[in-house]
Amino acid sequence: MSQPIDWLSRLLELMTVSGRLELRCLYGAPWQVIYGQGPVGDIVYHVILSGGAFVNDADGGVPQRLSAGDILLVPTGAPHLLHDGSGMQPTPATQRVGVNLTISESAGSGERLDMLCGRFVLAPPHDRLLGRYLSSRLIVRATPPSPTVQQSAARDQLTSLLALMRVETSNEGLGGHAMLNALSAALFTLALRLASESNDGPPGLPALAGHPRLAPALTAMFLDPGYPWTLPKLADLCHMSRATLARQFQRNLGRSADDFLLDIRMSVAANELKKTMNSTAAVAEVVGYRSEAAFQRVFKQHLGMTPAQWRTASRAADRERK
Asked: What phi and psi, each to the nearest 5 degrees, are found at residue 20?
């Protein structure tokens, strides 16, 4: 009997996600941190351990404040600016390269900030799936209003995880680099869990996951992507009308259920094509295509290359990483 698994675990099984903690910022105000455009497969993260920060809105809106325990996720390597909010000329920072990460410090005399900065790196084509379904900026709050028991438990886990990261960044112990990267990967999962439990997030995958009635549809698509799911079938699983399901997906995800299912199928197909023994026809069947030609056409439209080209390119990339 196969082990039961939830949809978020299945999502994280589908994609190769590596965490990398790069910087610990120890600043006194005034200060600022500027990130230019990075690789589109990166989700940059910032964790406020103590103090506070402001992040500028990419559209020129009012900057949002981050408090101790808050996590900022910036998908697709988007440029962003963090600062202390004073509007004063920032005090120059100096960097000290340690064994496991870089410490950036400034001697400003104002409010002190302790912040961890890193990135989650998604391998193609999985950067499409998460990059498309996460907002351009996602803030996971340390203290949501009126937290549920489930949210409180997840917050306790996050507090313990951040305490481990803080200790590990303060020591230069053997294996520290590997430990910090592993803790960063765990941080990614916890951040997505907490975001999905919030009711005030922007449209995206966490907002969709925050509706318990939609969980049967998400689970069905992730656990059995090759099944011929239709909107009526998915709506029946959720005990709602077809129109209601379609409206919930569009409102919370910003895309249709069909679009989402297609992205899942192409992510599964990309993984299956890496396996030496799997023919293109067999992969097509796994993700619900009876016609190999139809599968090849959709795959190329989705990834910009044929299944054979993807197989060759992904294996070459794997060899380079080794």
From this structure: -145, 115
Pairwise CA distance, residues 92 & 32, whole Å: 9
Query: How do strand 138-140 and strand 112-122 relate by DSSP bridges?
Result: unpaired
CB atoms under 10 Å from CB of 119, counted, come to: 22
Phi-psi region of 302 (alpha: psi -120 to 50; beta: other; left: phi over 0): alpha
Smallest CA-to-CA distance from 41 within 116, 117, 132 is with 132
DSSP H helical segments within the chain, as ranges? 7-14, 126-133, 149-170, 176-196, 205-209, 215-223, 231-237, 242-253, 257-273, 280-286, 292-303, 307-321
Domain residue extents for the chain: 7-198, 211-321
The per-residue pLDDT string of the chain (322 residues; one tens digit each, 9 = 90 and over) reads: 355 678 878 887 887 778 888 899 999 999 999 999 888 888 899 999 999 999 987 666 788 999 999 999 998 888 999 999 999 999 999 999 877 789 999 988 999 999 999 998 887 777 766 767 776 788 888 776 666 666 678 788 888 888 888 888 887 777 888 888 888 888 888 888 888 776 666 667 787 777 888 889 999 999 999 999 999 999 999 999 999 999 999 988 888 999 999 999 999 999 899 887 789 999 999 999 999 999 999 999 988 899 999 998 887 776 665 5
Helices (H), 114-204: 126-133, 149-170, 176-196
CATH of domain 211-321: 1.10.10.60
Q: ∠80-85-90 over CA atoms, to 5°?
A: 80
Q: How many CB atoms lie within 10 A of CB 8?
A: 18
- Contact between 280 and 306 under an 8 Å Cβ cutoff? The reply is no
CATH topology of domain 7-198: Jelly Rolls (2.60.120)
